[in-house]
Every structure is written in structure tokens, then in C-alpha cells.
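Question (not urgent): is this output format expected?
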Amino acid sequence: MLSPVAALGRATMAMVATLGRVSMFTAQTLRHMITPPYYPHELWHALIAIGWLSLPVVGMTAVFTGAALALQIYAGGARFSAEAVVPQIVAIGMTRELGPVLGGLMVAARVASSVAAEIGTMKVTEQIDALVTLSTNPMKYLTAPRVLAATLSVPILVAVGDAIGIMGGFLVGTSRLGFNEATYLKNTFDFLEVWDVGSGLVKGAVFGFLIALMGCYFGMNSGRGAQGVGAAVKAAVVASSVLILASNYLLTEAFFSS
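Got this back:
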């Protein structure tokens, strides 16, 4: 009779323990990000790997998202004779939601997996133990530069993705839907507000922090062997994707609920 209750209790205790470990890992990461010594070479390498090399996939995702969004809004607006709102809705949809969220998810798929695999492999091959032997803190050398690089670079990727996505909507609107180029651009810029773009950039910074944090956490705590590294990669991508969607709702509620 008590076995279901016991199973529920074990699951609850495991969840609480995991939350505690993640919270402690987050606190240690923040402390190492702001205290010396610093490793600028590792930071620069992480900026290139996370930011610059993620630009093609974010750009391709954004341009097709903006183009499809323009088609969908036009088709839906035609039911209510509201086709003219395509530029405005594409702009606000890309800057507030689709740009940050889809960009964050694409970066999560690419970066969280690679970070978890890299650090997990270092753990399996005892390279992290070697860092400790050389009096180098693994959290400071491996985690802090990657988390800081993602926090700085993902908002830039989001800004670029916003621009490319709006351009995709512009191309479809002017070439397929019959919009005048000057009118489309005027409606876009007249409708956008500074906070529409700013809120997306704040979301990008939060998403970047979560992506790199999850990749580093699961990499540092990966199991032994190829199976352990594979499980760490899968857990990092799933956790970062879920956290992006959850934090997106919380941030949207905080920014626009009033």
C-alpha cells in the first residue's frame, strides 16, 4: 500500500536534490565569473565557438521564420480584411518572441550539446583532474568563460536574427503579397518601440546564460564512458530547451503583463 507513496517521495527528494545541486552550481559559476583570476583566451575562444559559429544557423532560422510568419498573418488577416497589419505583426512577433525563442533553441541545440560533450569527455579522460593537479579551478577555467560568452553573444545573435527575420517578412511581403516597399518599411519602423527590441535582447541574455550553464553542469556531472557522455548531452539539450520556454513565459509575464 505504501509503495506508490514511497516512489513519489523518492522522486520528490531526487528533484529537490537536483534543484539544490543546480542552484549551488549556479552560485559558484556567478562567483567565478566576477572574481579573478580570469582567462581571456578561453573567453575569446568561447565567444567565437558560441557566437560567431552560431550565426549561420540562427540567420537561416530567422529568415524562414519571418517569411512564413508574413504568409500566415496575411492568410489569417484576409479573413477579417486586416491584411495591412502584416509588417507590424511580423516586426513585433520577431522582436518580442520568435527571434529570442527560436534563436535560443537553435543555440541550445548546437551549444549546449557541444559544451556538455566537450566537458563530459574531459571528465571521462581525466583532463579535469589534471586541471586540479595543476592548481587550476575547473569551474573558473571551463565554466565561467563559456557562461559569460553565451550571456554576451546570444543577445547579439538575437538582434541579428530579428533583423534577418524582419527582412524575410519584407521580401515575402513585397514580392509575394503585393506590399509597397516604402510603405512596408514605414509601417515596420513606426510600429516598433525600443522596449520591443530591448525585451528580446534581455531574453537572449537569460537564454544564453541558461544554455551554457546547463551544458557545463551536465558535462561536469556526466557519467563514465561514452554512454555517460551521451546521456549528459541529451540532458543538457532537453534541460536548456525547457528552461528557455519556461523563462520566456516568466519574462513575458514580467515585461508585458501590465
